[in-house]
Amino acid sequence: MQSLVLYGIPNCDTVKKARTWLQEHATIYNFAFGFHDFKKQGLERGTIESWLKHVDLDVLINRKGTTWRALTDEQKASISDIDAAIALMIASPSIIKRPVLQMQSSGNQVAHIEVGFSAQQYQPLFK
């Protein structure tokens, strides 16, 4: 059975859609998933670093949201530095595009990361 963790914020509409899709398809495709509320549970540097091995920083940062617009120009400019970008994501997880689906291998290693949600995006992951 494949192990998945969906990272996000529970009141985000896109996260709600992703959770519903995963719940509806868990038995069909034989997977289990957990949910990690990164506003309440936080994020560790190692988690973000593992995501960045699979997706570009530009994919992970949500430049369309209100959190991004509220940043100072200096904070926005610091995103080009990986360490500063990771520190900003830990301090303000709402800057991360949601949801982040982390698929883990049998050895509990991150095997795949998917950022955002649509049924068309998720469907091929489970065939």
Question: What would you say this structure looks like, in words?
Answer:
The chain has a single domain (2-126), classed as Glutaredoxin (3-Layer(aba) Sandwich), CATH 3.40.30.10. Helices cover 43% and strands 20% of the residues. The chain is built from 7 helices and 4 strands; from the N terminus they run βαβαααααββα. A 4-stranded mixed sheet has the order 2-1-3-4, with helices on one face. Helix 1 links the parallel strand 1 and strand 2 (31-37). The longest helix has 17 residues, at 13-29. The model has no long low-confidence stretch (mean pLDDT 92).
SSE layout and pairing:
Layout: E1 2-8, H1 13-29, E2 31-37, H2 45-52, H3 57-60, H4 66-70, H5 73-78, H6 82-91, E3 100-104, E4 110-115, H7 119-122
Parallel strand pairs: 1-2
Antiparallel strand pairs: 1-3, 3-4
In the CATH hierarchy, what is the superfamily?
A: Glutaredoxin
Radius of gyration: 15 Å
Order of helices and strands: EHEHHHHHEEH
Beta-strand share of residues: 15-25%
Count of beta strands = 4
Q: Can you tell me the number of structural domains? A: 1
Shape: globular
Order of neighbouring strands in the sheet with most strands: 2-1-3-4
Question: How many helices does DSSP assign?
Answer: 7
Assign the CATH architecture.
3-Layer(aba) Sandwich
Which CATH class is shown?
Alpha Beta
Tell me the major beta sheet.
4 strands, mixed
